[in-house]
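Hi all, posting the design record for the shared folder.

TITLE: backbone redesign
STEP: 1 of 1
STRUCTURE INPUT:
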């Protein structure tokens, strides 16, 4: 049902903004629970070191917890179905070794964060410092002290993506260029860092974890696995989340540790990451090394691309997907939107003594895009042609769509070459080239560059199966409820961390139901009251959760009682808005439905007695009660729907 004023595409003020602009948001740090103790961690100052001993001052016992004090915690393990992939066990609190700077060794609790940090400073750890693995291309085949000694090398996995005949392309090429590129390591740095608050609810026999996460339902699943307790005894709540960008779409050791502390202690515990901790210990990203060879003819037509991609994935794999997807996605996406028939990409995921790598805005694709776009420019320079024309001539043509690239990526539609040429036209490229030839009066250099980016988003189940993932995040859910006053509540498994989903999802429901978004509430983030979902990542929220909201809303609309549709047949008032005025009729129709094969006339008039007299008497009494509450207009509508003539006077 179209609703141009407030439905899909309408420009509305965001529902979320009012509370945030007035300082009324509720983040983990804002939640006040009586008796909450703050947590600080003893963390490794070394990238690679054996832990010989941990000394806790006598007066601190009972307030400092090492792995030995929390035996219920299991190591984090990544399950992967890809042949040959290695998955090291990751103890949330380090035991025998520290494998990156900032790795947690002990948790300290105190009434304030400052006191907890003082306690952490009083804990002494005896280290045997080892050589650190920091150069992924150099050390991937082995090092003096491997990150995980049992491996013998430092490779999580190595793979090849290939298609066509790269050797034939090399022989036919007039131009052969080899270049190396580096994409540096980065940190996600959302406005709000990670934060966890956990407590034991004795009445419900569950542990409640408030956490700043993009994926509350999968965190709940993981906590059950690594704490060995049933999911029914775990409630995860993501309140307001101050940005995520990917790093918050993974399980972290601190979430497990805080939950374990809450299960063992009789008071809430909270940890709020400071900015230094975030830069050290929250998921890092990128850190790609590319060596790319392009084969081309004299006009700059790309005949083939041969690449080696090395990704520095850090010391462990973050649950659930592990460290494997970054290099694999870079290799598959490197051909970009170009007609490259011959391709080979050897890619390596390497363990180093650095913070574990995680997803962040694009996951592998920005590096691949940078590499192929730089190679297009290099080829254009080598053949003496403008990069715009070389780029456009190598792009997949619109007539070829849908097109599957040599890397296996399906491009569904678009006229890429025309978009590049249109961009050049809008920028008046000839004028800029003339300006470059003339030079600037002050000697400055003027540059212009072009790049194309075909993004892979909203991955379905098939994508994760192809990666060999054991956890397949292929769907989202929505439960839509219409309340007696005609307002609507959407309970979704997706999690908002600043995208405005409370507004946009309500607009989708408004589009389908014809009710103002102001009368639609979106509930998310609480595993106790929302439909299951895999969370927000990979630009999937509108596709997956938006689709679920649309389908649930359509089902809800189709299920509205016939009397509501009848009531709105002679008016322009929206169907669901009309339901506000006829909420009592909903009750009546439900009662009629319960009667099943019992005739309506029998119910109204008394009818013959049958074996189910008790049921019929109960229904009669309830229906008469409802009928007496109807206005004459409502009675007329009910009569039309159920085929009974009813006249109700002032006395009912």
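Okay, here is what came back for every position:
SEQUENCE:
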């Amino acid at each position: 049902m179209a609703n141009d004023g407030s439905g899909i595409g309408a420009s509305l003020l965001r529902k979320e903004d009012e509370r945030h602009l007035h300082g009324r948001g509720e983040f983990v740090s804002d939640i006040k629970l009586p008796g909450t103790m703050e947590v600080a961690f003893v963390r490794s100052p070394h990238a690679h070191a054996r832990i010989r001993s941990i000394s806790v001052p006598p007066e601190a016992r009972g307030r400092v917890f090492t792995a030995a004090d929390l035996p219920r915690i299991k190591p984090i393990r990544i399950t992967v179905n890809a042949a040959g992939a290695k998955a090291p066990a990751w103890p949330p609190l380090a035991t025998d070794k520290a494998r990156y700077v900032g790795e947690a060794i002990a948790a300290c609790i105190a009434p304030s964060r400052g006191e907890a940090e003082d306690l952490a400073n009083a804990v002494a750890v005896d280290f045997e410092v080892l050589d650190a693995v920091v150069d992924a291309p150099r050390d991937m085949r082995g090092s003096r002290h491997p990150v995980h000694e049992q491996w013998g090398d430092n490779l999580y996995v190595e793979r090849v993506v290939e298609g066509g005949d790269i050797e034939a392309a090399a022989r036919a090429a007039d131009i052969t260029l080899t270049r190396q590129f580096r994409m540096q390591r980065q940190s996600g740095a959302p406005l709000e860092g990670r934060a966890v608050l956990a407590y034991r609810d004795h009445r419900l026999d569950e542990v409640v974890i408030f956490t700043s996460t993009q994926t509350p339902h999968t965190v709940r699943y993981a906590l059950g696995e690594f704490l060995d307790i049933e999911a029914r005894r775990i409630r995860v709540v993501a309140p307001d989340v101050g940005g995520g960008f990917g790093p918050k779409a993974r399980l972290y050791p601190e979430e497990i540790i805080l939950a374990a502390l809450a299960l063992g202690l009789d008071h809430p515990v909270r940890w709020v990451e400071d900015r230094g901790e975030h830069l050290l210990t929250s998921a890092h990203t990128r850190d790609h090394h590319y060596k790319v060879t392009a084969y081309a003819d004299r006009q700059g037509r790309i005949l083939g691309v041969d690449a080696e991609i090395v990704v520095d994935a850090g010391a462990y794999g973050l649950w659930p997907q592990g460290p494997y997807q970054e290099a694999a996605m870079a290799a598959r996406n490197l051909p970009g939107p170009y007609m490259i028939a011959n391709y080979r990409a050897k890619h390596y995921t390497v363990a180093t003594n650095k913070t574990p790598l995680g997803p962040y805005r694009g996951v592998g694709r920005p590096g691949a895009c940078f590499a192929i776009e730089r190679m297009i420019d290099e080829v254009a320079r080598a053949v003496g042609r403008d990069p715009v024309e070389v780029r456009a001539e190598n792009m997949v043509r619109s007539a070829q769509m849908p097109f599957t690239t040599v890397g296996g990526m399906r491009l569904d539609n678009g006229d890429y070459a025309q978009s590049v040429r249109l961009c050049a036209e809008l920028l008046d490229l000839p004028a800029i080239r003339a300006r470059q030839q003339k030079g600037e009066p002050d000697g400055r250099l003027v540059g212009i560059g072009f790049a194309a980016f075909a993004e892979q988003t909203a991955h379905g189940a098939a994508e994760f199966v192809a990666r060999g993932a054991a956890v397949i995040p292929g769907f989202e859910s929505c439960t839509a409820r219409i309340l007696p006053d005609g307002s609507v509540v959407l309970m979704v498994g997706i999690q908002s961390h600043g995208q405005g989903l409370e507004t946009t999802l309500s607009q989708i429901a408004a589009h389908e139901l014809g009710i103002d978004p102001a009368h639609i509430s979106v509930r998310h983030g609480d595993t106790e009251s929302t439909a299951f979902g895999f969370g927000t990542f990979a630009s999937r929220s509108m596709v997956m959760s938006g689709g679920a909201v649309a389908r649930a809303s359509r089902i809800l609309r189709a299920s509205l009682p016939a009397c509501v549709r009848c009531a709105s047949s002679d008016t322009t008032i929206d169907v669901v808005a009309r339901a506000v005025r006829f909420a009592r009729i909903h009750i009546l129709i439900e009662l009629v439905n319960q009667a099943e094969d019992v005739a309506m006339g029998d119910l109204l008039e008394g009818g013959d007695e049958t074996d189910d007299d008790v049921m019929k008497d109960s229904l009669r009494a309830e229906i008469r009660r409802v009928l007496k509450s109807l206005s004459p207009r409502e009675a007329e509508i009910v009569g039309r729907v159920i085929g009974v003539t009813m006249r109700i006077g002032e006395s009912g």
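COMMENT: Confidence is low (pLDDT under 50) at residues 562-581.
Let me know if anyone wants the other runs.
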